[in-house]
Amino acid sequence: MSLSHGRPYLAIPGPSVMPDRVLAAMQRPAPNIYTGALHEMTATLFPDLKRAAGTAHHAAIYISNGHGMWEAAFLNVLARGDRILALVAGHFGHGWVATARALGAEVEVIESDGAGPVDPDRLADRLRADRSHEIRAVISCHVDTATGVRADMAGYRAALDAAGHPALLMADCIASMGCDRFEMDAMGVDVAITASQKGLMTPPGLGFAFFNERAAEARRRADMVTPYWDWRPRAAPELYYQYFAGTAPTHHLYALRAALDLIVEEGIEAVWSRHARLANSIWAAVEAWGREGEMRLGVRSAEDRSHAVTSIHLGAPDADRLRGWCETEMGVTLGIGLGRTPPEGWFRIGHMGHVNAHMVLGALGTIEAGLSALSIPHGPGGVTAAAKALAAA
Ligand SMILES: *Cc1c(COP(=O)(O)O)cnc(C)c1O
């Protein structure tokens, strides 16, 4: 007999749990796309999106997932054959690199060991050697969702400034936005991209690009961009249809409005601190379980860990056995390991977006039950450690 009947819990790192208010906002007839309420509502999205990204500059909305936004970011700032420096801490960083290469960019990679981010000093060294300023852009995932590593974007900006280097700093915030503190302008990021289905709690299908004046300037020499991917009309349309280069994604926009309402009501600072406290409780549980057996956190130091996703090593075949048990017996779906060598032995907990303390404690209690049911060696007291961390916070 399975105990999974009841509301399932999708604890994977995206798509994330959708709030009931977001779901309800989509229950409506097709709106008129030519005039009226949809137009007024769309205009309200931009200030709230920019606040969530920490920027006073430009925002563009696309009908796209994250992979499309990887392309959108490059197409608007690169000319054919440009050189890019990629700071990579996991599978998604490599994915963005592959996109750049497919577009014909010359990409150089500085890679971390996956248990922490690329050190800004390594970036500083490489920039100092680039005296002729051939590197056009430095790219990094703010959070690499495969490893759960959070990069030091402000540290990368400081390295660029110290070297007097003009390269753009570009951040993939697909996992982190609305979860980990990200302040585009204060961190000196020139281009940030994200998507709807993670911290922004909206169904997959919307992508967002934020760009400042330096990036807008780079757009002038970009020579690969096609009309659909051009961010200029999307960010400053003269006619409504230019926001989306065609028909508006009507129901996604209403969903996004509801999700942004939730963020505005809670306050972005409170959203970030909720994610920090929940993440902290998950790490406390994993550390307690890891006192015996194989379990350990993938990211060495707490300040480098994302508050949106946690990657955990358990060893093969136990990681897969545990995930299977949690899903079929308890109704909690955990994330698979991604981009690891060997590929097995890891799982991830998504704790991004519409997640609160009882959900996290439920997921952790489920994992602890699974470890016992499957006789996987582990230290005692993981859930207690998590509860104590929440009580103390
Ligand atoms: C999810 C994710 C992507 C890919 O997004 P899709 O919507 O699946 O294309 C890229 N980068 C990061 C950091 C992500 O978390």
C-alpha end-to-end distance: 37 Å
Strand tally: 14
Query: Could you name the CATH topology of the largest domain?
Result: Aspartate Aminotransferase, domain 2
Strand content: 15-25%
Low-confidence stretches: none
- What's the mean pLDDT score? 98
CATH class of the largest domain: Alpha Beta
The CATH superfamily of the largest domain bears the name: Type I PLP-dependent aspartate aminotransferase-like (Major domain)
Listed once per kind, the bound small molecules are: pyridoxal-5'-phosphate
Q: Count of helical segments? A: 14
Instruction: Specify the structural class.
Output: alpha/beta
Widest sheet, order of strands = 2-10-9-8-5-3-4
Element order: H for helix, E for strand: EHHEHEHEHEEEHEHEEHHHHEEHEEHH
What does this structure look like?
The structure is a single chain. By secondary structure, the protein is of the alpha/beta class. It has two domains: 9-16 and 268-392, Aspartate Aminotransferase, domain 1; 31-264, Type I PLP-dependent aspartate aminotransferase-like (Major domain) (Aspartate Aminotransferase, domain 2, 3-Layer(aba) Sandwich). The protein is 41% helix and 17% strand. It contains 14 helices and 14 strands. It has helices at residues 20-25, 37-53, 66-75, 91-102, 120-129, 153-162, 184-187, 213-219, 231-235, 250-266, 268-289, 318-330, 357-373, 382-392; strands spanning 9-11, 58-63, 83-88, 106-111, 135-141, 143-144, 149-150, 168-172, 191-195, 206-211, 296-297, 309-313, 332-336, 346-350. The protein has a seven-stranded mixed beta sheet, sandwiched between helices. Strand 6 and strand 7 (149-150) form a beta hairpin. Helix 2 (37-53) packs across helix 10 (250-266) and helix 5 runs parallel beside helix 6. It is globular, with a radius of gyration of 21 Å. The two termini are 37 Å apart. The relative contact order is 0.17. The model has no long low-confidence stretch (mean pLDDT 98). Pyridoxal-5'-phosphate binds next to helix 3.
